[in-house]
Amino acid sequence: SDDELHARIRAAKKTLGDKLVILGHFYQRDEVVQYADFVGDSFQLANAALTRPDAESIVFCGVHFMAETADILAGADQRVILPNLAAGCSMADMADEDAVETAWEELVELYGTEPDADGRMPLMPVTYMNSSAALKAFCGRHGGIVCTSSNAATVLEWAFERAQRVLFFPDQHLGRNTASAMGIPPEQTPMINVHKPGLGQTEETLRDAKVLLWHGFCSVHKRFTVAQIEQARAQYEGCKVIVHPECPKPVVDAADAAGSTDAIRTFVEASEPGDVIAIGTEINLVNRLAAQYPDRTIFCLDPVVCPCSTMYRIHPGYLAWVLDGLVDGEVRNQISVDADVAGDAKVALERMLAAKP
Ligand code: 13P
Ligand code: SF4
């Protein structure tokens, strides 16, 4: 029964004490979030993993790339556990290492490897956190860096101090929205496709490019539309709209603000009683904010419930199962990144952690 499941989780947490830390992403369901020692966006959770070096086990209630990142940053004597191994991210799966290598080689052939007069290299790879450890390692090896939705502009500025252009993967929308906010015109943010001759672009377009976009997207955030924003504004005069930067650019342009899951939370926190706020992001976060602020009208822009189906795979039953294992001295569902991949990936992650606005 549910009661028995929750009793097991509470008992295991008590038994394991400080040897255990549970991290929960904002998109996790409330039945799971209630057990998290830290709840945050993907950047905050990467840092949270570092704040508890005493914990032997880091149980990550989130998706696979987040657990990999925690494993890369965690100490050698810490282990990271993902309660359900099927909790992936479809966007992260849209960029595989071979395809990125192929695109990279074509681009290196075009741009060469000689730095310009200011010492900037012709091209730098930048990966969104939502990517495999192998791609973070690729960035580490090629002078590149990782970004999250909360620091993408800072990271791109860091990149442009060191490179003339950026190859940005996997999320085209975060790349396009961030470049646009930095004043880079659309003709300098072409989308490339490794399956098309010349990456699907003319040589002239590629030469003038500043941010070359991979074709990945988030199936949750691509559902949001400008029509939904117009409808919300028509229904509620003065309605404020905030969306995640994984939404398509017209949606971000039509919203009042765009930001990471934590930026969405702080936007709501800074609002006033009586305010009406329409949010373009995953439903678990929107519903939690609506429950936390009952004196405001807070709703999801998409009237059809849009959960992230993979985040949702972390059911309390899996959490109970991995915690029971730890109590019995059995490690279940450990995420362990190969040492050589982890070493290179850590270089790219540490560049991100050190890049300050
Ligand atoms: P945040 O970095 O904003 O938490 O986003 C992670 C994510 O997967 C959004 O879809
Ligand atoms: Fe991946 Fe989208 Fe789910 Fe975030 S919401 S984990 S980007 S599929």
From TrEMBL:
Bound cofactor: record note: Binds 1 [4Fe-4S] cluster per subunit.
SUPFAM superfamilies (alphabetical): NadA-like
Main location group: cytoplasm
Needed co-factor(s): [4Fe-4S] cluster
GO molecular function, a single term: quinolinate synthetase A activity
GO terms under cellular component: cytosol
Residues annotated to bind iminosuccinate: H25, S42, Y128, M129, N130, S149, H244, P245, E246, T261
Cellular localization per UniProt: Cytoplasm
UniProt catalytic activity: iminosuccinate + dihydroxyacetone phosphate = quinolinate + phosphate + 2 H2O + H(+)
Binding-site residues, [4Fe-4S] cluster: C89, C218, C308
Record pathway: Cofactor biosynthesis; NAD(+) biosynthesis; quinolinate from iminoaspartate: step 1/1
Keyword list, A-Z: 4Fe-4S, Cytoplasm, Iron, Iron-sulfur, Metal-binding, Pyridine nucleotide biosynthesis, Transferase
Pfam assignment, any one: NadA
EC number: 2.5.1.72
GO biological processes: 'de novo' NAD+ biosynthetic process from L-aspartate
Function: Catalyzes the condensation of iminoaspartate with dihydroxyacetone phosphate to form quinolinate.
Similarity remark: Belongs to the quinolinate synthase family. Type 3 subfamily.
Name this protein carries in UniProt: Quinolinate synthase
Species: Aeromicrobium phragmitis
Gene name, Swiss-Prot/TrEMBL: nadA
